[in-house]
């Protein structure tokens, strides 16, 4: 697994020209500021000696040039450097979005943790450029220039300034980074707890109130917020100590430069004008390195944020990349599962086997039911059929064409359906349907609504958050309408009648089966009322599937599923 800096480097590499350009422009702006102060010192000290008008004119012109150059360079630094930072941030967000869209990280983190990592930790890329690279390069380039100027004026003064800048620009920031390492890690964990607590509190507000648990949930959020506040205070203390230590080093270095310069003037080895330039150059040089302690303290937080993104970016895929098959999958056909063994990915490889040697058939136009206890592996089988999970062994074919060797998007166009808890987005009916087919026209959308018994709904009707304005049956019908827009060969319906009253259940089943229209239908259910609607029933127990035909349903005894060639 690559480290956080390797991930940052991979994102910044395509933007390297902008990052380097912004850093050099920042160094130029900083150098112009320091040069302006040194030139002002020379101008004021020289003016007292009544120099020629030409010398004064040249100095005034240079002062104006440095002043204008500083502003222009600073503007261009913001333009070029921030543009590169924002583009790198966009690239990082694209990577995180792509991994989240693959579902593996979503299954391994709580929603609040993902929100914290997607928002706060992803911004670390921008902070790395704006708050780390740009000021460090500017300080290194401009600081070196200040040391060279001071050494040219008076070598001992240049050596003293170099030592002071190393203390203020390297030693103090290193100490600040060491002191902030612990608080930065605790801040990340506290942000996770705070985001998770807030999401749980808002999403589960009704249930929390019903069970009198709102106070405990609010207290947990308050505790996470208090921890984050304490961490922020520790960060502020570290920043204050860094700024104070930098100011102390600057003051001592400035005092030393004055003592050395005055002694040199008394000895006749240094003039009054160079002394003034030396002193103000020393003062300007420490303004250059003043942001570095804060940058070093922030660097630990940046590294922590990037490290927290690694589990998301490197979550192992549950489905291997595949190439499209030589022929498109049929729009109708027989689904056959043979010898299927499946397990969900674990920390170091496949986890415990959930399904073993499963055989199952869904013929064209057939309604097949799959029943089993909770945790028996029914949803795992649905995940394999939907290509959310690769099997460890076995095959899944549609009219003889293998599905487990096809890309997920291609398979989901042939095997679609309704999950156990279909998500309805806070938008209109039209936009919820167009998730399945963005190019579908209003006539096609209206027709599919009629097929699932939702003809009374308008396409512009708002459904509310999580479909709050729809009943449970209407949400399932809407999810089925989405699946039908894909025109799949097989429909997989996971608990289609869950939480429905008998009247609504029967109506939903009627509409579901009527809308199937010659497709194979696999109904995964706990509901015994569904079984009389099925042409064939399978029972999933002990990680294996057993078949019950019509006679077996009458006796209630499961029979072993016959061999594939039986």
Oligomer: single chain
Shape summary:
elongated
Distance between the termini: 48 Å
**Helix-strand makeup class:** alpha/beta
SSE series? HHHHHHHHHHHEEEHEEHEHHHEHEEEHE
Strand content: 5-15%
Radius of gyration (CA) equals 34 Å
Query: What's the count of strands?
Result: 11
Mean pLDDT: 81
Regarding CATH, which class of the largest domain?
Mainly Alpha
Question: What's the tally of helices?
Answer: 18
Contiguous low-pLDDT stretches (5 residues minimum) are 550-566
**What's the domain count?**
2
Indicate the CATH topology of the largest domain.
Answer: ABC transporter transmembrane region fold
Domain ABC transporter: 335-566
Subcellular location: Cell membrane
Keywords: ATP-binding, Membrane, Nucleotide-binding, Transmembrane, Transmembrane helix
Region (Disordered): 543-566
Can you offer a commentary on this structure?
This protein has 566 residues and is α/β, with parallel strands linked by helices. The protein has 2 domains: 302 residues, ABC transporter transmembrane region fold (Up-down Bundle); 226 residues, Rossmann fold (3-Layer(aba) Sandwich). Helices cover 62% and strands 12% of the residues. Strands 6-7-8-3-9-10-11 form a 7-stranded mixed beta sheet, with helices on both faces. It has a 4-stranded antiparallel beta sheet with strand order 2-1-4-5, covered by helices on one side. α17 links the parallel β7 and β8. α7 runs antiparallel to α9. The C terminus is likely disordered. Keywords: ATP-binding, Membrane, Nucleotide-binding, Transmembrane, Transmembrane helix.
